[in-house]
User: Fold this.
Amino acid sequence: MQTDKGMSADVVELRAALLGWYGENARDLPWRRTRDAYVVWVSEVMLQQTRVAAVVEYFGRFMREFPTLEALAEAEEERVLAQWSGLGYYRRARMMHKAARMIVAEFGGRMPETAAELRALPGVGEYTAAAVASISHGEAVPVVDGNVERVLLRLCGPQLAEAGGNGKPAVGALRTAAQRFLDSQRPGEFNQAMMELGATVCLPRNPQCGECPVRTHCSTQGEHETGPAKQMRSRQVAYVLMQRNWGPKTEVLLRRRGEDESQMPGMWELPAAPEGGLPDESVVLTVRHAITNTNYYVTIYELPWEEKRTLKAPRGSLQWVKLRELGEVPLTGLTRKVLKRTKILPGTAKGALA
Ligand code: SF4
Assistant:
């Protein structure tokens, strides 16, 4: 455990300023109303590479469906993926489900408490382990996510930014800096305060230094390289929307992705349009869909159900799914978006990464 003995007055002041600011400015997010390790774990997994606003909606629904670790462990994987549908990065959900089953089978349903023990669970990396251990159990381990890394680099300046050589920070140096700043008496709050500062004040391209509670301790105060904007690639893709039987018996044709497909195995999506294209008059929707660094420009054609025979898909992968059962199917984010935009599913598509 780190002690505060011998710590410089500067660091002590920084901690007090940051924690005071966090106490007054922390966003009221549903997972912050408890220190329950299962709840914290679910929220931290969802928050990886996904915007807070998108997670808020999914988190509530997921917790209603799986209110306890046991409920998650008992569920079929397809049901877990269905609740995750639209959040993207589905491996996160699969690994969390696997870990929940392991906790029930090997630890009697009690989550490990230390960061080292948590890291032994499937899919739990250094970041998630540190977040759960510090927030739920008060272990003095620093969390270093993308937001915290940016804050540390700006607070410490060029010395830390170039510690790894080639003008890059070294992972070890970042962790050492994070551990030095960490308040060992209130590690959970301190970690959350650092993440909150990065998410709301020390922004990637436009840091709000005038509002920053630790600006007097900051080496750079906005005078730093912001790095190039993310380069997005573009891809054109096309899918087919087919429905049959009207009224309460309406069904939509979907394709289940193979278990051996590298992306989103086992998820359900609209069938791909035949190569060579379809007549423009069949277009019912065009939509842009971003996945990591690719913008997909998507064309959706609507065809009569009898045209199913023209579609190319692996044998047995196409299936008619009843409208009332769509909520239980793990749809890809794009398919969910299309079905919402075409009013086949209720609600409007949220801008989650998927
Ligand atoms: S002063 Fe500016 S650059 Fe420094 S930590 Fe605060 S917001 Fe970031």
Summary: The mean pLDDT is 89.
